[in-house]
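Troubleshooting entry. The earlier prediction with flavin-adenine dinucleotide gave an output that would not parse, so I re-checked the input for stray whitespace and re-submitted. Clean input:
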Amino acid sequence: MDMKMIDQFILGGAIASLLGFLLLCYTFQGKKKSNRASMEMQRDDYVKNSQDGECQQEIAGNTEIIIVGAGVAGSALACTLGKDGRQVLVIERDLTEPDRIVGELLQPGGYLKLIELGLEDCVNEIDAQRVLGYALFKDGRNARLSYPLKDFHSDVAGRSFHNGRFIQKMREKAASLPNVRMEQGTVTSLLEQKGTIKGVQYKTKTGEEMTACAPLTIVCDGCFSNLRRSLCNPKVDIPSCFVALVLKNCQLPFPNHGHVILANPSPILLYQISSTEIRCLVDVPGQKVPSISNGKMASYLKNMVAPQIPVVIYHAFISAVEEGNIRTMPNRSMPAAPYPTPGALLLGDAFNMRHPLTGGGMTVALSDIVVLRDLFRPLHDFNDAPALCKYLESFYTLRKPVASTINTLAGALYKVFSASSDEARNEMRKACFDYLSLGGIFSNGPIALLSGLNPQPLSLVLHFFAVAIYGVGRLLLPFPSPKRAWLGARLISDACSIIFPILKAEGVRQMFFPATVPSYYRAPPAS
Ligand SMILES: Cc1cc2nc3c(=O)[nH]c(=O)nc-3n(C[C@H](O)[C@H](O)[C@H](O)COP(=O)(O)OP(=O)(O)OC[C@H]3O[C@@H](n4cnc5c(N)ncnc54)[C@H](O)[C@@H]3O)c2cc1C
């Protein structure tokens, strides 16, 4: 049986390589057409013409970088640039502690990035919980997938926490730096002059209209970003919503593990967010969820969802529904499609989003900040906006292998983990659960991808197709019938239809062969 599986694994790899090659050829052809026809700035309500002289005073005030938004990306970036001695102005709509249901589980790969940025102490004293892996549940069976942490320092693990507490820690750290200024205000538009962003217009808490100018504005205004429209081509997809609850006075079946239930119609997530609370996120496909106000949501959760919850937390789940603190959030995904613009840059969810099933958003944002910090380090100033813009094109390529692997995994896994009326898709779902349950390389590889500890694009494609081949092998063995062979062919075709569009949207060349992209080698502008 083991030898058969190894054969299937090798065959899967060969098929994956061939398919990857074909897709690459296709993408090279398509890319030429899809480049933005013109680099002109798209003016809308969120971009205003900057009057001559409007920005002189601020530039004299020496602000080098304006950061819009102090969420996960903005506050981590402010700390990082501030520590590197940059003069930073952060404008955040609300500086009080956020109370949100997003960004509550930081993968170990993200924690490694926090260490690289010197921000690991921001998960201390917030009752953060160590996360050591995942537990998968399907049809009464379960499988434990541990993060491959043995080669790392004992402190390295995932962390789960209240998002607001984590952000507040990073904000405090940024504000403690003498060269970082934090202001509460809502940025209403970017100021543009002859195609270059010169700064922002914002409204203070008291309603006063203000202007702030700097050679570089970094927009980190999150998933609902209005400001991104002139800086990228936002193709936002909302495949589902999360319905969130907090469970109290109970213990998860596998402490210190994220729990994923392969439920019907789509997955349910559970993880601790403090020593006494467990976050439950129930995925509801589509963009509409049952109404909370008329009680339809509560009855959906009690009748459809509760029977699929592990028995040990069933009562806590019902109590949480009855308590009524139910919140919802759309799950967005958006590939990065920037319009490189002098004087401005996008970061975090404003720039790039993926389905939150795998908890990869913060890891991507922190990884991007590491790339950006390293690109900024040789620069003395940011005043030559066109030259800086050209140089920063390398950012879009350098970030790709890590960001795209995490993004692709999230999109593909969401599709595979969701129930379907299609028999081939359900075979893939079963094969995926069983493949991950095999342990060894079959669980270590995928969990290393998910954790962000080894986000290698090739490993992702190989494991994805290995799952498909494993599924086909089970259908054909011991004796293939025409019906099962046909189902196997449909399974492979379905697997291709899941992963190839995601890879294409991410950019195959940048993801798999970044070194062949000319912008990879951009040198810093001479100052
Ligand atoms: C339901 C859900 C669950 C998720 N769970 C996880 C998870 O477990 N792990 C994980 O890694 N990722 C998760 N994510 C993704 C993660 O939350 C994001 O990737 C991350 O928060 C992105 O950080 P950000 O700084 O770009 O945005 P945010 O953290 O949302 O910050 C944006 C900031 O900008 C401010 N702002 C907005 N507009 C303006 C304006 N005009 N002027 C001034 N300020 C403004 C906001 O007040 C906010 O503080 C989840 C996402 C969703 C939807």
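This one parsed fine. Residues 246 and 279 are 5 Å apart (CA to CA).
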